[in-house]
Structure formats: C-alpha cells, structure tokens
Amino acid sequence: MSDLQKQIQDAAIVAMKAGEKQRLAVIRLMTSSMKQIEVDERIELDDARVIAILDKMVKQRRESISQFKTAGRDDLIKQESFEIDIIQEFLPQALSEEEIDTIVNQAIEQTSANSIKDMGKVMGLVKPQIIGRADMGEVSGRIKSILSSS
To answer: For the chain: N or C, fewer Cβ within 10 A?
Structure first.
C-alpha cells in the first residue's frame, strides 16, 4: 500500500469517528476507484498511480460541473465542488504559472526542441514532473504555443 493510500485510509477513519458522512462518502469513492484498478490490473498502486487516479476523478467532476451549469443544477454543482475540494486535499500542491513555465522552458532547452514536431519529447520530460499538479491539457497548450512561435 502506498503512502498516499495509507493517508486516504487514515482520513476515512478520522471522518468516520467525527461523523462526517459526506466527507466519508467521497473518501470511500476514492478508495473504491483505487481498489477497482488494483483488482482489474492485479497490481499494487504506487503514489504516482494514485495521484493519476485522483486527478482523473477531479477532471470528471469538473466536466460534470460544466454540464450542470448548462442545465442550471446548482445543487449538483455544489456537491461536485465539495467532492473536488476533498479529493484535492490528497493531491500534491498545485504548481504556479511561473513554476509551470520554468519546467516547460527547461524541458525545451534540454531537448533542443524548436518545432511542434518535438512536442512529444518535451511532453515526455515535463509529464513526470507535473502530473497531478497541473492540468496537462493547459501545459500541452503552452508547450504548443511556445514551440509554434519559435
């Protein structure tokens, strides 16, 4: 069991003892997502994989929020936002815009990238440093704009 899984399990116990039913329900959702992957793939998850799972859960909830806004369902928006807040407690601290730019620029220098064709090399270097700490879609867009302007 990874350190992050242990931390989530401990949070479930604390929530149970404190009688925080909504928080406990979200933590159980996280636990079940992790267990599902462990069973399906017959592996033991490491922290990086747990972060990827939690990141995916946050992304799903953000998509749901945008759909609920269109439908005018404020009650469901509130619930999804609550779930995002709980899940993000277990994710690493998000990177600032400057930190992302620094990582991207270093990767471009290291790979000597000078066109969009080199984007895969740059993403390969950037992804392990940023995963779970920033939206990879936005990072990809930044890399693309930097490489297309050079």
So the answer is: C
Reported pTM: 0.77
- Please check whether residues 109 and 83 belong to one and the same domain: no
For the chain, the C-alpha Rg in angstroms (whole number) is 18
CA angle 6–38–81, rounded 5-degree value? 65
Residue type, 141: G
Count structural domains, the chain: 2
CA distance 27 to 127: 26
- Could you tell me the residue range of the domain that residue 132 belongs to? 97-149
Q: Map 46-105 to HEC letters.
A: CHHHHHHHHHHHHHHHHHHHHHHHHHCCHHHHHHHHHHHHHHHCCCCCCCCHHHHHHHHH
pLDDT in tens, the chain (150 residues): 889 999 999 999 999 999 999 999 999 999 999 999 999 999 999 988 999 899 899 999 999 999 999 999 999 999 999 999 999 999 988 889 999 999 999 999 999 988 889 899 999 999 888 877 888 888 999 999 888 886
